[in-house]
Amino acid sequence: WHREVINKVDEERPLREIVVGSIKRAVENILGVIALSYLVISIIFIASSIGTLKNIEKSVFNLKKGEISLSTKYLKQAEVYGRVSKSNYIFISPVIRFFYNKIDVYSKNYLSFVDYSLSVLTSLSQTYNLTEKVYMTLNSGDQKTDYSSLALGLKSNLQQSYESLNQLEIILNKNELPKPLLQKIKQNVEYEQLKSTQKQMSELIKVVD
User: Fold this and answer.
1) What is the pLDDT of residue 5?
2) Which of 118, 129, 180, 198 has the most Cβ atoms closer than 10 angstroms to its Cβ?
3) Cα-based distances in Å from 91 to 37, 50, 82, 116
4) Comparing C-alpha atoms, which of 51, 74, 50, 48 is closest to residue 61?
């Protein structure tokens, strides 16, 4: 009787080991897939972030030259890259926040920085187009143009730009952005002129009023 029990236990032991081994391998495979997914999403986030910043830079460069169509082209590309960055970061944010909370804070500030930068560029492009329209209609002597609507549009765009610039200044003053980005911004001439630009915006809003 004892031998039968021992034999039965010996037969059940390999079966348990097989089951446990299968479960272990399944868990390892699942964890591997999750880790790979997070790695791919992180790479996409980094690549799309680089694309966003490069296109913002090109948009600013062309806007300063008065090349509005080119500036708008790069602005739209930056918006696409920005949406990709934001949608991918939603997935990896909980993990980064759990292990590296400071990096999560910096990354979210970066996304906010991009949003406000795009908002400023959009408003400035629209302001430029509206200003050009006012100038052309004044020269043509068109009496049918609704100048009050154009003035309201100009005021709205200028206010939006002013508010977005204020938010950008708040983010930059916190010094809670990825270090390479923060250094590049603070070495830029436009950063030094941020205060004067805000003042000019405020004065323009008063003129439009």
Assistant:
1) 42
2) 118
3) 10, 19, 15, 22
4) 74
